[in-house]
Every structure is written in structure tokens, then in C-alpha cells.
Amino acid sequence: MIDLKIAAAPISWGVCEVPGWGHQLSPDRVLREMQQAGLAATELGPEGFLPADPMALTGLLDAHGLSCAGTFAPAVLHHAGHDPGRDIAAALDSIVAVGASTLVLAAASGTEGYDSRPVLDAGGWATLLANLDRIADDATERGVTAVLHPHVGTMVETSADVDRVLSGSRIPLCLDTGHLLIGGSQPLQLARHCADRVAHVHLKDVDTRLAARVRCGELTYTQAVAQGMYTPLGAGDIDISGIVTALRGNGFDGWFVLEQDTILDGEPPGEGPLRDVRSSVAYLTDVLARIPA
User: Structural domains in the chain?
Assistant: First the structure.
């Protein structure tokens, strides 16, 4: 097998920071199944899912043959007078402690969940953009790359929001294929034309019929996830192969993190989410193997 940076995130097993999201699986089951799927690394998941103590965290990852690809860190960036450094301090400390190099930042709305968000005025945007650059600089001083993750239900969701970040800040992007598409961006075009700003990738495939119902307000984001908006790679409507090929052709050599957000209503019998993860690993491995070296 060729040397590939393929990682996963606990959200593919339904583990999420949103209160009431669904049944939360144990770290031992999630990490064991990541190892069984042949994955090399994991993102850390929501605060409290894995141990905060560096030795305990390192030991747990080592026991499952996994390294850390980074961690997702929501932070309120648009409120003047609020220091977002406090929001991301624990996450930054954790990834430094385990030798990871990527802080995946989301511009949180300040409310729970991802089903709605306020509209920013010019002052809010100025504060958000300044905080992005400040956090990126602070992370760099600790040997970490901070990336901004456009995300449904956050202050950077739409195509216009993404353009504003690209033109108004220096921070690199986490190219999340699913959230970008649902928000109205074209992830393939970003992979082709903005590859110099992409430092981390979340690969999601999407049922675009459900995504369209989220965009028009017919379904909330949470409802769409519960109905299966995210699919195994290659089973949805996003050109995952084209995106991966474009990124690799433009020199991307970071982590491809598999994410198939799901909501569980209980402990799944049998393989459960592992079945879809195995399918996505096989699909991505095949895509990468067909890209000329």
C-alpha cells in the first residue's frame, strides 16, 4: 500500500460537540474501529471525548496505532471584546502535546448547534478577520497551522463568506467538501484555483437533494444529517475523485480526513459506522493510487 495520509474524525461514529446530537460511542470502540479500518490518524473530536492529560492521550492513541491529525475547535471570533484564545486554548494545548500540527478552527455563532446563525455587520466581519490572523500567528509560534473551516451554521458558511475570508485574511482553509457544497461553494473549483490556501482537507460526500433542502430552509442541518445527507465516499454527488486529484496535482501533501457525519439512536449492532468508513477508505485509496506520482 502506498504511503497515504488518510485519517478519520469521531463524527463518522456520531461523536459530536452539539448537545443532544445522539448516542455517543465510547473512545475505545471508535479508536479500535479506526485501527480496524486501516486508518493512520484521527482528529481528537469534541472536548472531553479523549483524555485531556497529555500522557493519557498519547498512551491511548499509541495503544490503537494512531497518530493525531489535528482537532476541530469552534470559537466565537466576531464579538469585539471577546478573546477567542480562551475558546481554543485547551484544543491547542492538546495537539501540541501529542505532536500534531493542525488546529481546525470554526467561526462559531455563539449558540448551540448548527441550525441557524446571525448575520454579521461590517464591524463583526472586521473583528472576525482580525481574530483569524491573530490566532493563525499565535498557533504558528507554537509550531501549529491554524486553518479556517467553513461550516454550516457558523459565521463562515456561504460562498460569499469564504470569498471574504480568502480576500481579507491570511489564514489557510480546511477544505471540507460537504460543508462548502451545502453552503453554496464549489469545492472542486477551490481545489483547482485556491490550492495554495488549502492546508487541511475534510472529505465528505453528500446527497445533494437533501443539501438543497437545507439551503432553502425546508430542513435544518441536523434533520438532514439524521436523514442520511452524508454518504460513504463515492456514493454521493460530490466529485471526490476530481477534488483529490486536483489537490494532489497542485502539491497538497496534508491529511485527507474522512468525515461522514452521522447521528446514532443507540449502540449500533455489528459493524455499524465501521462499514461505511471501510467503504470510504477503499474508495479514497483507489483514487489516490490512480494519481500519477
Answer: 6-289 (3.20.20.150)
